[in-house]
Specification:
- This protein is α/β, with parallel strands linked by helices and 851 residues long.
- It folds into 5 domains: 128 residues, no CATH class; 115 residues, OmpA-like domain (60s Ribosomal Protein L30, Chain: A, 2-Layer Sandwich), CATH 3.30.1330.60; 161 residues, no CATH class; 156 residues, Orthogonal Bundle (Arc Repressor Mutant, subunit A); 96 residues, Serine Threonine Protein Phosphatase 5, Tetratricopeptide repeat (Alpha Horseshoe).
- Helix content is 51%, strand content 14%.
- Strands 14-13-15-16-12-17-18-19 form an 8-stranded mixed β-sheet, sandwiched between helices. Strands 7-8-11-10-9 form a 5-stranded antiparallel β-sheet, with no helix packed on it.
- One of its GO terms (cellular component) is membrane.
Length: 851
């Protein structure tokens, strides 16, 4: 025997003799068996429903028996060597078998080893067993909406290509090249149907070309053109939201790395010629024949096998005896299981300090108390998840959820409903759950709430959690994501399938680092358990079930089915009636009285708000005492206030979210909206020095700016124009027009580029131009009228009626060169739009120059 093999054999023998008893002694005998009678034990065994403690005891006995058998055989071999006989279990075979069993057991949780080049061909039966052993893939159907196409354009802007990169990354990681990616183009309702359909197809092809460039060859990407037949039905977003493309694709949990590597290996290894294949088949059959003959000889007598091994060495070539293989594999499995347990990755516990990412502020976290092996915080608070991963289940009790948390009892579903509802109100939180959990909590079917991801089963929910983590990692470089880290709340039922349980355990292990809180509804999951059988009492049990602590005098955080439906916004009863009852209120806060038309002179009974929201400018501004307090707000907060100001009667929650954050994921968009509303409230209260001040009102699922809290320049502009149109007094009409002109100091939000703003911007341009032209016509002298006309041209540079009035006024002043300059300027601007001055304008120009 080779010296190295001897050393390996001895080392393996010693390891298998010493390590198992040391480790098995740490596995204590189940104490629950002491009070169990033999009759009860026998009934559980014959009914095939033995308790877990019985299985643990049987496993412990079996492992000790295997080790005892192995030890006895080794002692017999040692005695045989001392008497000069051949041992029944050769040290070489023992070493090889033990090492093989150990390596298989240890590497099982990691990666399957690659067979050597000269190994025998894998049979179809082995392939079938391998396929059955793999975890089935979970398929997710997704649709990505991409808006931002320009009018009559199919080109992707840099912003659109950047927004497509996360989708490309998801396809590269979890996509299946065998599943087709479908891109559907859409247009707005302007233009003929045939033209819109062709334009939508070009938009789909542009997106498909970008995806093909990023993904490479091997992917099937199909395109469709829907034209204008499928609008988004969101009138608040404007027609820009309909100029979009929708990407439908499939994600799967089946890893692509193994498939790709095997495909590459098959491509690198050319298939052998037919002669070589026949030669390999013949050698394989001869080898099998020799193996069968060898096994027959082994079954006759063990002494013959030992003698044969010593004389001819055939034993090493033909295989191992059944006893040797059984004992060696069993011992190797024991060592492998222990080694795998010892080398398995531990839970990474990272204590987060500072601000609570869900509570949105810096809180003084009290020291946790460890009772029965579970850390709890006994302090009043309103935050859902505090620093360190403590989940609040009652008004003055938060339980550590770093290793996951199970909720059971009569009110278990109500507690989960409360946690889901509070999480949806938190900033930057995604809630992932299943249809069964929502049904138990009392939510109706087909619940669709921003920020809530509903999956058909637990396995799909775990996959969504993993994808959310990948998306969160990619968004870490964004400014908003860094300022307020995102968290994911996973709420599922206790899994029954072993593979799903293992995957849930892996998600729980990295939950502290990945920002995931796992909440399990029901019993059976090995985690700390909170039992809620009363509204004022909570029982906390450790993961092993060995210790329970009762906390009473609490107020349990729970929701019944009706409250949960209202929280999710699915209970819309009475909403339509409330909307119908809302009467359109005319904004008269900015209107002057008939006697005093100036804005600065108001009636004694009216109180002008201290805050003023200015939208006629590059960016929204919130002014208080000539200071822009809006500079302290986030950009998304100012844009939200601007959008609500342009809709004085309010906007629905979904419409508001889609209009502001249409390019963000649904859960992230909801978090951004919540962040914006909280930020507006915080800044206004600090500026006014009033902790109860409000600027927004949310009723019946609609956001609205409080008229009594803020004055808006566009409201004053609109109100003045309405009053000018309603009055028949020329002086009063002129006064109202001057008020409107004083409000329009700049183009509406000239530096804000969002789909909903352009339509409003154009409308105010035209309204301002008409106002300035009316003021020009009402002035006594042409010089003053020309000033108003120049302002009209600045506000609407493509309005030919304005240029016509300018040319007439310049001609009346005898400035024919100015008439020609005005006509040339109009021609240049229209040329950039591939248009020409109208016949009326050209004819007027010729008449004024006397040509």
């Amino acid at each position: 025997m080779h010296p190295v093999r001897k050393v390996l054999a001895c080392a393996a023998t010693l390891a298998l003799l010493v390590a198992p008893p040391v480790l098995l002694q740490r596995w204590q005998w189940p104490a629950q068996l002491d009070g169990m009678s033999w009759d009860h034990l026998w009934l559980t065994l014959i009914s095939a429903t033995p308790p877990t403690v019985v299985l643990q005891a049987l496993t412990l006995v079996l492992l000790w028996a295997l080790w005892g058998t192995f030890t006895g055989l080794v002692l017999l071999d040692a005695a045989a060597l001392l008497r000069g006989r051949v041992p029944r279990i050769g040290l070489l075979r023992l070493a090889v078998t033990g090492v093989a069993g150990t390596s298989v057991a240890v590497s099982a949780p990691a990666v399957a080893s690659v067979a050597p080049a000269d190994s025998a061909l894998t049979t179809g039966e082995q392939d079938a067993r391998g396929e059955e052993g793999e975890e089935p893939a979970h398929v997710l159907e997704r649709t990505r909406m991409l808006a931002g196409f320009g009018t009559d354009s199919a080109e992707l802007t840099p912003t659109m290509t950047e927004e497509l990169l996360p989708t490309v990354e998801l396809l590269q990681l979890f996509g299946d090249p065998g599943e087709a990616v479908t891109v559907t183009g859409h247009t707005d309702t302007n233009g003929p149907d045939a033209y819109n359909r062709a334009l939508s197809e070009r938009r789909a092809e542009s997106v498909a070309a970008f995806l093909t460039e990023q993904l490479g060859e091997g992917w099937t990407i199909t395109t469709e053109g829907a034209g204008s037949g499928q609008p988004r039905n969101h009138p608040d977003l404007g027609q820009a939201a309909d100029r979009r493309a929708e990407i439908a694709y499939t994600l799967t949990t089946q890893p692509r790395a193994a498939a790709d590597s095997s495909a590459e290996q098959s491509e690198r290894e050319p298939s052998p010629p037919p002669e070589q294949e026949q030669e390999r088949d013949r050698e394989s059959r001869e080898r099998e024949s020799r193996d069968s003959e060898s096994k027959g000889r082994e079954s006759e007598t063990m002494d013959d096998l030992a003698d044969s091994a010593l004389t001819s060495g055939e034993g090493e070539d033909t295989g191992f005896s059944g006893t040797s293989m059984l004992v060696g594999a069993a011992a190797g499995a024991i060592a492998g299981a222990v080694g795998g347990r010892l080398t398995a990755p531990r839970r990474r516990e990272v204590r987060r300090g500072g601000a609570d990412p869900l509570a949105g502020g810096e809180l003084a976290v009290p020291e946790p108390e460890e009772v029965s092996g579970v850390e709890v915080l006994q302090s009043a608070g309103t935050e859902l998840v505090s620093a360190g991963g403590y989940l609040r289940v009652a008004d003055s009790l938060a339980v550590s959820a770093r290793d996951g948390l199970s909720v059971t009892g009569t009110h278990g579903a109500g507690v989960c409903a409360s946690v889901i509802g509070r999480a949806l109100e938190e900033e930057h939180t995604t809630v992932i759950t299943t249809q069964d959990v929502l049904a138990r909590a009392g939510a109706p079917e087909d619940t669709d709430v921003p920020g809530l991801v509903v999956c058909p089963d637990t396995a799909s929910a775990i996959t969504e959690t993993e994808l959310a983590y990948i998306s969160a990692v990619r968004l870490e470089d964004e400014e908003e994501a860094v300022a307020t880290p995102s968290w994911t709340l996973l709420v599922v039922e206790s899994p029954e399938e072993g593979r799903v349980s293992d995957r849930l355990d892996m998600v729980t292990r990295g939950s502290t680092d990945s920002g995931t809180v796992v909440l399990v509804l029901g019993e059976g999951w090995p985690s700390p358990t909170v039992r809620c059988d009363a509204l004022d009492t909570v029982e906390v049990t450790d993961a092993d079930g060995g210790g329970t602590t009762v906390y009473d005098g609490l107020r349990l955080s729970h929701m019944d089915a009706a409250a949960f439906s209202v929280c999710l916004g699915t209970d819309t009863e009475g909403l339509s009636a409330a909307e119908e009852a809302e009467e359109e209120e005319e904004d008269v806060s900015c209107l002057p009285t008939v006697e005093e038309p100036e804005l600065s002179e108001e009636g004694e009974g009216s109180v002008k708000p201290r805050l003023r929201l200015c939208l006629f400018g590059p960016q929204p501004r919130v002014v208080l005492d000539d200071a822009d307090v809006g500079a302290r707000m986030r950009g998304s907060t100012r844009r939200m206030l601007a959008l609500l100001a342009l809709h004085p009667d309010g906007m629905g929650t979904e419409a508001l979210t889609d209009a502001l954050f249409s390019h963000s994921a649904e859960s992230k968009a909801r978090g951004l909206r919540n962040t914006a509303s909280s930020d507006a409230r915080r800044v206004i209260r600090e500026a006014l020095g009033d902790g109860e001040a409000e600027i927004l009102e949310v009723t019946s699922g609609r956001y609205r700016i409080l008229r009594e809290a803020v004055d808006v320049d566009v409201w004053c502009f609109d109100a003045a124009l309405r009053a000018a149109s309603a009055t028949r007094d020329a002086e009063q009409r002129l006064a109202y027009l001057r008020i409107a002109a004083a409000e329009y100091t700049h183009e509406l939000l000239s530096e804000v580029e969002l789909p909903w703003i352009e339509e409003k911007r154009q409308a105010y341009r035209r309204a301002a131009a008409d106002c300035f032209v009316s003021l020009a016509k009402a002035n006594e002298g042409p010089e003053q009228g020309l000033v108003w006309l120049e302002r009209a041209r600045e506000s609407d540079g493509l309005n030919e009626a304005v240029y016509q009035e300018i040319m007439r006024t310049q001609a009346a002043l005898g400035r024919l060169d100015a008439v020609e300059r005005a006509y040339q300027e109009l021609s240049e601007r229209l040329k950039a739009m591939r248009a020409r001055p109208s016949v009326t304008t050209s004819k007027l120009f010729q008449e004024l120059l006397g040509r």
